[in-house]
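Proteins fold reproducibly. Consider a sample protein:
=====
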Amino acid sequence: MTEQATGAHHPQQRARNGGQQPTITEHVTGAQSLIRSLEEVGADTVFGIPGGAILPAYDPLMDSSKVRHVLVRHEQGAGHAATGYAQATGRVGVCMATSGPGATNLVTPIADAHMDSVPMVAITGQVASKAIGTDAFQEADICGITMPITKHNFLVTDPAEIPKTIAEAFHIASSGRPGPVLVDIAKDALQAQTSFVWPPQTDLPGYRPVTKPHAKQIREAARLITEARRPVLYVGGGVLKAGATEELRILAELTGAPVTTTLMALGAFPDSHPLHVGMPGMHGAVTAVTALQKSDLIVALGARFDDRVTGKLDSFAPFAKIVHADIDPAEIGKNRAADVPIVGDAREVIADLVVAIQAERDEGRSGDYTEWWRNLTRWRDTYPLGYDLPDDGSLSPQQVIQRIGRLAPEGTIYAAGVGQHQMWASHFIDYEQPGTWLNSGGAGTMGYAVPAAMGAKAGAPGRTVWAIDGDGCFQMTNQELVTCALNNIPIKVAIINNGALGMVRQWQTLFYNQRYSNTVLHSGPEGDAAEPGTVTGPSGGTRVPDFVKLAEAMGCVGIRCEDPAELDAVIAKANAINDRPVVVDFIVHEDAMVWPMVAAGTSNDEVMAARGVRPDFGDNEDD
């Protein structure tokens, strides 16, 4: 792990690693100890909402000059904001909530962070220790509830344990395979007097993440890469978590092997690089899907062979040997047996692979992928990503997203919701740098985009942040725009408004005989006449709410765009406004679909380049 990714720059990390730091001892309350601990681990932003059990912590928080608290409108927003902060900065994101419903409202973002290996510490208040287990007012066993979806969690009833617990929580969250850690603190522990001692003596028996890969496995992997005729570097989000993007570029250019980057790894390898063949998976590029399917060697780096990439597992990449490198040994062999398993940090693994492959070259051995690249280039030229403009002259959602990407300032961060707009944002925006693409990959959490963009902007205030959201996703967490407006967090939101739950509607079109059960979001049935002065969609139904008025009511600038001729001017106007949040309601054609596509449960061999278009790869490559 890099220093940025592991949080090794934090004081408690220096102490653990033998650095010199004077001991601090202060007589304080448990609540003051909590805030002092957050200051010492380097937390600078906390997203949260006060309530009875956590209220003692909010009093000393008011006096902290190092920790900024952002008062959100819903605890789910706090959790996703902490995730967006962590993904954009590489530091641990922090959220805070009270007991009972406050804590349970964090369950979704905690599960989301767990699926996507995001370093996050969630701090919750708990009822007084003597009331635990009595069904006291606003009591919930949040440790029990979140045990399956956290990397670890703590229940603190002794105020003396607070510094040690916070130090351990940040270390666990940020080291090894990152993930969320919950710290649940009883109210009486926050109120009691204690001594704050820093640095604390941490004790994590059995927690020793392996970061250095085994040399023999590295040599074997290098040999297979050299001998392969059709290798693919299958790059997952672990490469970003490890800060290994430069090492990846060196490895790819040294070998000349094609690179696929998963949905969670976009930006780990420049989209524009000639060795990049696209994103694999259910809605991946035809070339990337097919490259994996017809490869004879897959080198998986920080990826986990999830179902969205493999399709029907028993038919995935039938000719390929597998080199699987991951920081988490539990992932290796979980879905696909590995011929060469490598446990280690992606940065160290890739750096060692570069050395081993260079040694192979020094011995006169190098891979010949000439024929492989001939096929890859033909597939890439024949089946590029693309889209058709609507016949009725309305806005194409793909065009909207593509123009946002083209007109955005250098280094813009994009946070996407979940659904069609998420896939189009992965396809039609170019990701050249790490940390510029934030999304909910594993959990697929609708409502992620707005609060995640808020967290990213809070962590990287000097960068432009666009949330690419659907009208369905937006209506789940748009209240956080109030948080943005009141806290000087000027994000930009593009609502790709097709009046429907788009991805579900696409499945109903393809697999349910166009029976659109409960996927239309505007108020009137298709074809109903709208009242004068109301905002209507392409099919005539009244759209409720009016997103422009809603945005203005929440302290944002609201803009609507329906005409392709105005598209660039509207985007430029949004980019120019930096003193408050901007919401652009893009009214797009409702029938646009995401292609390519591998239907759920089918083989990647059945990838469709477009509706009714199955790629023809010939028969001579299946050898």
The longest helix spans residues 346-362. Residues 1-18, 525-533, 619-623 have pLDDT under 50 and may be disordered. The CA atoms of residues 287 and 378 lie 9 Å apart. The radius of gyration is 25 Å.
